[in-house]
Structure prediction request, 156 residues.
Amino acid sequence: MVIKLKIEFDAVMLKHDLINGAYFKMPFDVEKEFGARRVKVVAMFDNYEYRGSIVYMGDCFMIGITQAIRKAIGKEIGDIVHISLVKDEQERVVEIPQDLEEVLKHNEEAKTFLDSLSFSIKKKMITYITDSKKPETRQAHLEKIVEMLSNKEKMK
Prediction:
C-alpha cells in the first residue's frame, strides 16, 4: 500500500501583479516535503479538484488558480480558500482531437514538435481548438495551431 503525503491549509488568494491571475503562497517548505522545486499536484480548492504544479517564483513557492475555478468556488482575490495538496504521480496526457490528428498524419514535423511540448502547452493548444463554438472558428484555430507547430522557430 502506498501512502501519499497530503498537505492541507487555508490561504489568502493573492493577485498576480501583471495579469488577471491569482495564486497562493505555500506556507511550508516545498523542497523539504516533496524533494523538488517544481511539483505536480492534485489540488483541492474548497473541494474543487485541479491538476497543476507548485512552482518557485523568485521569492516564494506558489500555485495558481484559474479564473474558472475562482468563479466555480465563488471566491475572489483576498478571500481565504481551503487547500489540500497531494503529489500527482499520474501521467498527464492530452487527448488530440481527431481533426488535428488527421492533419498531423500529413505533417510529421509538426506532430513531432507537438509531441515534444509540455503537457500544459499542449493542453492550451488543444483547448484553443476544442473550445471553438462555430465550425469555421474551430477550423481557423486548427489551421493556426498547425501553422505554429510547422514554424516552431516562431514559437521561441
About this structure: The radius of gyration is 18 Å. The first strand starts at residue 6 and ends at 12.
